[in-house]
Amino acid sequence: MAFLAWLEASPVSTWVNQSESVFAYPAILLVHTIGLTLLVGVSFAVNLRIAGVAAQVPLAALRTLTPLMWTGLALSAASGALLLTAKATTMGVNPAFYVKMACIVAAVALIVGRREPNKAVAVLSILLWFGAITAGRFMAYLGEAAQFG
Amino acid sequence: MTIPHVHLLLNHFPVLGAVAGLGLLLLSLVRRSEALKRAGLEVWFVVSLLTFPAYLSGNAAEQAIAERPDVSMAFIAAHEDAAVWALALMQITGVLAWLALWKERRATHASPLPLAAVLLLSVLTVAAMARTATLGGEIRHPEIAAADGVGATQASPGAAAWVASVVIDNPWAWPTNETLHFIGLTLVFAVVLPLNLRVLGLMRSVPFPALHRLLPWAMLGFVINAVTGMMFFIAAAEQYTLNPAFYWKIACLVAAGANILYLTGVDDVWKVGEGATAPAIARAVAASSLVLWFGVVFWGRLMPFLGLTF
Predict the structure, then answer these.
(1) Domain segments of chain A: what residues?
(2) Are A37 and B218 in contact (CB under 8 A)?
(3) Is B212 in the A-facing interface, judged by CB distances under 8 Å?
(4) Mind listing the pLDDT tens digit for each residue in B168-212?
(5) Which of A26, A45, A138 is facing B193, going by the closest CB pair?
(6) Are B269 and B263 in contact (CB under 8 A)?
(7) Which value does ipTM take for this structure?
(8) What number of C-beta contacts closer than 8 Å exist between A and B?
(9) Where are the domains of chain B?
(10) Distances from the Cα of A114 to the Cαs of A106, A107, A121, B299, in angstroms?
(11) Do B186 and A44 lie within an 8 Å CB cutoff?
């Protein structure tokens, strides 16, 4: 808890929290959302293909979009870290935050550790992203963080 | 040009467009013309897109005249309730029209079922739009309002009030809708990214028609977001009516939707085979499509910060 408080009192957190600039909190949130569209969008497309949608599309071709997916992950992780430090004392104790992190770690692990394309794994991957989105959205409504845009 | 002005301008499109769309489809049956049928379906799709801004500009128009002594709120409420039904029917027709266009891209043997469904919904939509327009006209034209006017029929809360109460009275409705709105967003991008990037020249080994089965997933995402988005708007219109970011988002959305129609309906794109480069116009549409979809995310995400806070 002391660590979370120290984190939230850091100059970066103070700037994210208190700056009136549209480049502070709003822009970071925007980057977080654009990262989501790239990361989950591409992952979703690959998993739909593995699950059997648009079977004529070569999987290898779809996987050429992977760099876009990692770009999305980098954007979301960096912006997410800033958002987290800004709200460390509320989010660090929010169960939805840990559910979200668990879903993301599992979903990324499925991408990194992929072997043969497997329908069940593809569906699980999609469900994990849904879980991450759901938990992420409910972070704003659980605990004492109701003003979290 | 103000938003109430936009409402008065756009509100003619759903009425006249619906009549034109229905007329083209009927004519296509009489003349047995595939080209007319496609034109009719395309008109329905475009008109259903334009119906969003026509509806969404209505609350600003209401605010502009609500204070006037000669304006009856009962007339406005009746118009709004009729508009909710007309919007719903129009969007169902639009989605079905798109599905019929989409199916033609795949089917060697066209099934008549989508067209029959579009025709049925078309008739209902024309009726609902005509009713909405009549009630809307009566707001500022007492000379055409019947003596036993609509005010009397407003004893029970209508469609708009019902949707608002579902969202507001249920504490989990808003977060659940937001979650679904984000899931719909990722679905749209799961299709829009590979589709447009292929047209732009990435994944060149993929023939464009191979992406055919991916398209309805974007439509599913769009439908989820249209339903949840409309629930936000109907429940808390005051958060949006004065927010420029909201209107920019809707403008981007309508234009991006028109791009989807181009990519579904234009033969040039569907002829792009393995290793082939798409025509320049298609590439321009794909590039603008990506810009517009990110524009939707941009204006949507910044909505709470650029306008009124919520």
Answers:
(1) 2-148
(2) no
(3) yes
(4) 999 999 999 999 999 999 999 999 999 999 999 999 999 999 999
(5) A45
(6) yes
(7) 0.91
(8) 105
(9) 1-156, 157-310
(10) 12, 11, 9, 36
(11) yes
